[in-house]
Batch of 3 targets.
Target 1
Amino acid sequence: METRRPTHGKSQPHGVALIASLLIMLLLLLMGMALVGLALTENKLATNTKNLNTAFYVAEAGVESLFVDLRALLASTPTPASSALPNGSNLASGGTRAPASPGYAFDFSGSPAATRVSYVRTAAPYNYLTTIDKGPYQGLNAFTTDYQISARVVGPLNTQARVSQVIQYQEIPLFQFGVFYGRGVDLEIAPGPPMIFNGRVHANSNLYVVANSGLQFDSFLTTAGSIYRYLKRDGTPQHYNNPLVKDANGNYQPLNFDHVSDVGFAGAWGESDWRAQALRTFGGKVLDTAMGVTEIIPPIPELFYNPSNPDVVAHQLIEKNVPGESAGLQAAKLYYQADLRIVDGVATLKDGSPANLSLCSGTVVTTKSFYDKREGKTMTATQVDVSALRTCPFLSGGGTLLYVSDGGFDKAVRLVNGSEVTAGGLTVVTDNPLYIQGDYNTINKQPSAVLADAITILSNNWGPNGSDAKGDQVTDNRPATNTTVNAAFALGPSAESTVGQGNGQLENVIRFLENWSNKTFTYRGSIISLWHSQRVTGDWRCCGSGGTHYYRAPNRNWGYDTLFDTSLPPGTPRAIAIAKGRWQG
């Protein structure tokens, strides 16, 4: 009998295959689920990244918006209270600058709020004296206030971004410049005799410079406009001789190219070529708008936001009070800072009380008349005897700011006997034209300044020669003698140069009425020109004795007074520069 044994030969492989298939399907399912999860994760990450980037852009826009608000506030209120700083209300939901991106909003929670402008220093005084250490104004002293602008944004899925930036509000005393010209008054330099400038030269508008017999610059040459190597009066550019500028190593290099013309003036070139060549040649000592130079804004509020007629607006610095003026304008006008005011013949102290000039030794104020041949008219001057002013008991020894004004276009101010000024320095301010007769601030020199509609120098020989009675005669009847003045000047030319009619350039912005042939006018100070003269508008005419000629030019021994590096005149105007720090996330 045959016995059959059970076998599994063909059924066993089928079972293994089924199990393997199930395992593969499970593995594929897991891989698919992983890929789907990865895709979802990547999509979420991409969405989060997009949301985060958008939040950062919105936050940066918020900081820029707060900066605009801060700048506007500082124009009208130079030293705002901490509570007055922009709080970002216009960035809030429903505000005029709320985010345009749906789902994003600025966060104002916390104390202090996450979105705000704040002082970096937590207690007054918020400003501090520092030396600017980089940029075109490096080396200048500035009263600096640091503001931190912060913005925090919350977006979809609770995406959050916070950025901040420190803004430095720098108040730069203007008399640290050898020459400073404001916007609307182009700076032109073209001296006939050799001239060396030992101080900084800066223009907020364009700078035109040529050399005749010799012109050297020992410090920075900067402009927020462009540098040109010709004069505006020349219809076709004439390059004359090359000025020399000390480079970063202290070596003189020729300025034989400019913003629009290549080396040797062989042809035109682009802004990038000019920038590269100037930086390579001078090592950062010659800079204009192509290198990022921006304006230093004189401290008149309207100059921050009104680009029209900046020279007319800047003239307010020396003008009388006007009822209803803003606090910002009052802070800028030197009238309000004056220790002594003589307005229309009436003398008052800073608090408005009468000033008894009879307490001073000698006669402080008299009225004199003389003929100004450039203007073609007789000027009636409020004459201030500086020697007598020094004896007034109501003036402190810490420096004096004197404001003088008289209405009318034939009125003027004249300073006499000024070889020694008041202790601590004397600043004289007037909206009239001003004449300085004789040596000024040469004995026991003090930090001093004169700010006026225009300034004319009358030599030491004006009085002895009786030139008050000879103003309408030929120039040679008014011979000058060597004269020295030590004072910062703020003044204006009568007009801008036009083709065929120059305005005398920098070397004639200080005016003369005598025959200075072979005589020297020595000047140490700082020349600031922010306006065109409004009271005296006669054209500059050079040079001779007959006809309409009114002067012969002096030898000019001019230079920046290094005394101003450590001691500034009373009431020195501070112009404004705003420096932005790096973004912080």
Target 2
Amino acid sequence: TWKLWGSTEALMAAITDVNPPGTYYVKVCASKSGINSAYAQKSLDMTGWDAPPNDVIGLTATKITSNTTQVKLSWEANTDIDLKGYRVYVNGVLHSNILTDTTYTYTADQSGQYTFAVVAVDNSDNESANQATVTDVITCEPADVTGFTVQQSDAD
């Protein structure tokens, strides 16, 4: 489908609000007194920006009180035009690839100190230059014992 971008009397124009990657087809014509010339059409392959997206800011870690093994990470939304999403690293290892939300809940399987890092990722797979990091200590307590019964034995 074609979308009418606009008209101009200039010999050049900037087309905004595109979301790379993808192929865009541009066609133009000359118009005078309501009569249009034949259209000229060209394709343009958009691969994204060369520059990385802006750094993630405002990263916080909040312990989940109902489950001590969980930490909720939150950060401010990145407004880069070609943002694909976010990656979350835990202790330097990629833990979640391309999140589109600005929150993530991590569940630890053992007690310890955890360093969380979040980066923004654009449509060209560039990561933001600097990681937003936060460190937290997670304690994995044993679960409460439930559902057991007591039986008396017939021992002498």
Target 3
Amino acid sequence: MKGLSNKVAIVTGGATKIGAAVARVLSEYGVKVAIFDIDREGGKKACDVRPDDIHFWPVDITDDKQLSQGIREVAAYYGHLNCLVNLAATYLDDGADSGREMWLTALNINVVSAIKAAQFAHPYFMAAGGGAIVNFTSVSSSVAQTGRWLYPASKAALLQATRSMAMDYAADRIRVNSVSPGWTWSRVMDELTQGSRRKTDEVAADYHLLGRAGDPEEIAQVVSFLLSDLSSFVTGADYSVDGGYSVMGPEQAKPAICRLAE
């Protein structure tokens, strides 16, 4: 992909299925990737596919000292820093029963830590002549979902923060965009279905025009585009990588008006 070779990217949450796919796809396009995660085993495993191009840093993104030091070390190790992917998140959510501490934890991980990562990376982007940031929001940011309050609210906040970042960083030649995935094959879906991708796709079919859940690699390709020079005139945008989830109304893919004549 044009304009990715020799760039350096940090991917937070890189030990997850989607994060590992983002790291791998970016590395295949010539990007040197640093994974930040608290999952040491998963992080190191994500590096194994391309050990010369992907390296792991054990960083807790909610710890400003660890986060700033990790970013500083990556820039020093590679000589520069061009890209940041804020993917790390928590699904912690008890809906209407969520307590204050749970709210603060979700917002700290899903919103504040992404903002702090961008702030800490900013001077290194400036030194490199510019950069690109991709924040992971979600289809959950724009719809109500039964029993979920924290995750949708935090992702909606990050969506707005993306616009604010894009506004204030534009003069520094830093582009900021977001991706909002629909259902994507992930550890959560793997665990809930005991590893059944077939069942995941069957359930997802009712909520996605394309009739299935997404693959991590499909999300990774869009992230790669947004970090590349091919998207040089794109900033402040949110890309729905959701198989049509976001354009389906309450009727979903089934006709409803005809039911009035039944």
